[in-house]
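Worked example 3 (structure in, sequence out).
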């Protein structure tokens, strides 16, 4: 993720002078880890409402998320669009990506690996794949327990897959084309970014137009086959890359464990304690103290 991913908000201040100057735009402060956590918590809380999926519109859903978020984080005041953008463009993509890597690690089913081992391995794989450390672990631990969020991720994945299939599929015979309606979304939690659309219907060609249409379909068919072959090649390449990572890990278990522990310890040492309750703060402080004792003991033994 790019370093500027945290800067989603823009604060506006009006200059009400006689010259009628344009409004000044002031960059809002970057989102902090406690803010991200409260945004995810607000999303989960609002998604539990029985109204979601029946009579609650998408705009209403996000207005409620914004309200719950600012009840927990009164300052800085984030615009409605900034809060929604932070979720849609930054938090959800990164956390969902990490969720997918965790599932891959679990599917690898390494003998003797504990849940903590799998999590550490997922953290390392994310760092290798994305080039940055995964910094939303608290948010992930919150969201992964939410049935609504897991359903949202599955729905999003299915829609993206269906969209790609429609884009790659050859056009049907114009003489048999029928309009197919896509129902409007009923659940703003899983489908708040758009509405159903009505695909256009091909007109029945006549005479020379029909001959041209048939020729056009033949060209499209060849193009579709090339697209499918290209997509399969990309999938095979990605699968090979991940398998190489897994195989490399299997041959270097000790090094993997050490690197995974380092990633986990780094996450603990760099976690912002602001916004945490006393028990959570005590947990991180005790963990940090244990990490430091272990490092000092290792340093002492290596110098003896």
């Amino acid at each position: 993720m790019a370093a500027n991913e945290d800067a989603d908000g823009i604060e506006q201040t009006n200059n009400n002078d006689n010259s009628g100057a344009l409004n000044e735009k002031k960059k809002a402060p970057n989102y902090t880890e406690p803010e991200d956590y409260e945004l995810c918590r607000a999303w989960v809380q609002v998604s539990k409402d029985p109204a979601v999926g029946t009579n609650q519109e998408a705009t209403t859903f996000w207005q409620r998320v914004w309200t719950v978020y600012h009840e927990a984080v009164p300052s800085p005041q984030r615009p409605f669009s900034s809060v929604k953008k932070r979720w849609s463009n930054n938090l959800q993509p990164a956390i969902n990506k990490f969720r997918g890597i965790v599932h891959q690690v679990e599917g690898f089913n390494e003998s003797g690996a504990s849940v903590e081992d799998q999590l550490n391995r997922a953290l390392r794989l994310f760092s290798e794949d994305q080039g940055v450390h995964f910094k939303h672990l608290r948010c992930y631990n919150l969201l992964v327990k939410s049935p609504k969020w897991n359903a949202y991720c599955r729905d999003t994945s299915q829609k993206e897959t269906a969209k790609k299939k429609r884009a790659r599929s050859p056009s049907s015979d114009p003489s048999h084309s029928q309009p197919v309606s896509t129902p409007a979304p009923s659940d703003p939690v899983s489908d708040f970014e758009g509405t159903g659309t009505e695909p256009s219907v091909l007109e029945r060609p006549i005479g020379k137009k029909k001959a041209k249409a048939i020729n056009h379909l033949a060209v499209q068919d060849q193009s579709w086959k090339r697209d499918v072959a290209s997509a399969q090649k990309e999938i095979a390449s990605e699968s090979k890359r991940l398998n190489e990572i897994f195989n490399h890990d299997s041959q270097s278990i000790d090094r993997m464990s050490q690197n995974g522990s380092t990633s986990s310890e780094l996450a603990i040492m760099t976690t912002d304690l602001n916004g945490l309750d006393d028990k959570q703060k005590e947990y991180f402080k005790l963990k940090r103290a244990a990490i430091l004792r272990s490092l000092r003991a290792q340093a002492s033994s290596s110098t003896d």
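Notes: The longest strand covers residues 10-13. Residues 26-159 form one domain.
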